[in-house]
Amino acid sequence: MREKNIPPLLAQEEVSQLLNVPSQRLEEAYWKGTIKNYQKHNLEAIQFRKGLGSVEAGTMVIMGEEIEVIRGFPKIRRTLLLKPALEKHFTGGNVAVEEKMNGYNVRIACIDHRIFAFTRGGYVCPYTTRKANEILDLDLFFQENPDMVICGEMVGTLNPYVSHYYPEVGKLGFRIFDLRKKITNTPLTVMDKRELLEEYGLEPVRLLGIFSVKEAPKKILEIVKDLGYKDREGVVMKDPMMQLEPLKYTSSQAQASELEYALSYPFDLARAFLFSRIIREGFQAYEMAETNDELRERALRMGESIIYPMLGTIKKVKEGEIAAEDLVIEVENQEEAEEFIRHLRDLKVMATLVEIKDGKAVIRRIHQSTNDKVNNYLQGGLY
Question: What torsion do the CA atoms of 15, 19, 20, 24 make, to the nearest 10 degrees?
Fold first, then answer.
């Protein structure tokens, strides 16, 4: 009886063959909710909410003129101590160091002559899709490389997910960190990627150097320290041939900034943010062998990023305000703003439109759990 309810796309044997996953296992994953039917933006697709075998979370299988597979972006693991991790992990001898920018992960692909931007979870973001088509000249690239997926970071102050100012970007920009093949997810090498992007006038993230494994830890610590002073996030370390998994490493200032954001909405975000950032700080302070003054500066930065934003939110709620943040996006009309709000609600984000003025929509993201719990404790509720 169940078979009649399986999405027609999922039932096709070709999907099983393309993903190298048995049909029965795909069906079981569908009933468990690991795989969902996805029908939005005139796409008929199935979406992998979680990983399944070698298939990454965020993978989309799309029915078009032919079946297309846009693989999810692989999770990049983090190193806490550079020297032992690099020596153990990078056995090829060299480490390519690219800048990790503070934005949100986007995959851009061409499906049936239309260009879509997919978020990390495998959703088509209407705002990012529209902006990617405006910012980037992609037509020729995809005409000549239809089997390629562009993986990059959307950054800038009009980024609705992670707003961060980069002098060279300004309001909104896109920087590419990988080019990967559809279906297999095979990446181009670091230099092949950069050469191909240059050919089409597309901008990669900065390559900060290629170092031997022996010299890399010292060089990367110096790079990350400098990036932190400039309010930039960190680095991704790659095998130049892309045969090994990349690793990432971030600055103390970036970790403090993330804590400040999370502790502004402590009952919605803090639990997922707090422990991991504190652990990173401890190991980074150890490896950097900081002076007493540098350690005190780090400790103050961490403490302030925890206490001040939380105190500010408590005071705000006490005064009758809502625990919320305002996102700003560029729109041409109200429908575009409302479409983005529907997208946020698909992600289980509570959001409302505040106003549209001068081509910009202000969208309020409400952190309801923080609002409710802070109010409860202010009225004498027990923790």
Answer: -50
Give the span between the Cα atoms of 116 and 41, in whole angstroms: 9
Residues 103, 118 within the same domain: yes
At 106-161, the pLDDT tens digits run: 999 999 999 999 999 999 999 999 999 999 999 999 999 999 999 999 999 999 99
Q: Tell whether 134 and 161 lie within a shared domain.
A: yes
Whether 371 is covered by a domain: the verdict is no
Mean pLDDT of 251-263: 96
* Total tally of structural domains belonging to the chain: 4
d(CA 71, CA 84): 31
pLDDT in tens, 308-365: 999 999 999 999 999 999 999 999 999 999 999 999 999 999 999 999 999 999 999 9
Read off the CATH number of the domain in which 211 is found: 3.30.470.30
Whether 279 and 138 share a structural domain: no
What lies within 8 Å, CB to CB, of 49 at 6+ separation is 33, 34, 35, 36, 57, 121, 122
Domain containing 160: what range?
A: 77-249
Looking at the chain, which runs of residues are DSSP E strands?
35-40, 43-48, 60-63, 67-70, 77-78, 94-100, 104-111, 114-119, 148-155, 173-181, 207-212, 234-238, 247-250, 324-330, 351-357, 360-366
Specify if 373 maps to a domain.
no
Give the tokens for residue 216: 């890399």
- Residue 10 sits in a domain whose CATH number is 3.10.450.740
Are 287 and 221 part of one and the same domain?
no
Encode pLDDT of 272-303 as tens digits. Answer: 889 999 999 999 999 999 999 999 999 999 99
CA angle 338, 342, 347 (to 5 degrees): 145
Residue 1: band (very low, low, confident or very high) from pLDDT cuts 50, 70, 90? very low
> 382 in a domain, yes or no?
no
Residue 207 backbone dihedrals phi, psi, to 5 degrees: -90, 115
Question: What's the average model confidence in pLDDT over 170-192?
Answer: 96
- 112 and 245 in a single domain? The answer is yes
The whole-angstrom distance between residue 49's C-alpha and the CA centroid of its chain comes to 15
Q: Model's pTM, two decimal places?
A: 0.93
Residues 210 and 260 both lie in one domain = no
In a domain, 157, yes or no: yes
